[in-house]
Design goal:
alpha+beta
């Protein structure tokens, strides 16, 4: 009887251990599935967020371009970071010219002078809708090509910063290749 009771107790302990083991495996499986679902949801949210940020950057770039070509200094300057570390560079292969401005005061002065010397609006280039973007928290590295009816093909690179929920330009490099030559 004692042996039978011990066997019964051993079976009961073994059954409890098996049940406990199965509960641990089940809990682990469920938590892995939840983690996988959470990772999938996070990836989906990040992709959606990236697309929203890209759309906001495109809007900021196009608004800055329109303001510049329409000679609207007030609107143009709202699209820029106003500090001493920003840069604006133009390289024009078509006429072999180059300009570089460093810091908001120099950039602002350059654009104000340009608008005063060339007050007539120019045709706005084809606005961008396809850009390459690398997002870094509140910053972005952006590059794209743009066709300008007066200057031809331009390759633009912009450093963007998100300030108070708005994307602003913190650096600009433009390479102008000129109008295509007819063959």
């Amino acid at each position: 009887m004692y042996i039978a009771a011990c066997k019964q107790k051993a079976i009961s302990v073994r059954s409890k251990l098996i049940v406990a083991f199965l509960l641990v495996v089940l809990s682990y499986t469920v938590s892995c599935k939840n983690a996988t679902n959470q990772e999938t949801e996070n990836a989906t949210n990040q992709a959606h967020s990236s697309e929203e940020e890209k759309a906001a950057i495109i809007k900021a770039l196009n608004d800055e371009t329109k303001a510049a070509f329409q000679r609207n200094y007030e609107s143009w300057q709202e699209k820029w970071v106003h500090d001493s570390t920003i840069t604006k560079t133009y390289i024009n292969f078509a006429d072999s010219s180059f300009s570089e401005s460093v810091g908001w005061n120099e950039i602002s002065s350059f654009v104000k002078t340009f608008i005063e010397q060339h007050p007539e609006p120019e045709p706005v280039p084809t606005l961008v809708n396809d850009i390459d973007v690398r997002l870094y928290e509140n910053g972005a590295w952006v590059s794209y090509e743009q066709q300008d009816s007066l200057r031809g093909l331009k390759r633009e690179t912009r450093l963007m910063e998100k300030i108070n929920g708005q994307w602003r330009i913190a650096g600009m490099h433009t390479t102008i290749y000129g109008l295509a030559k007819e063959k």
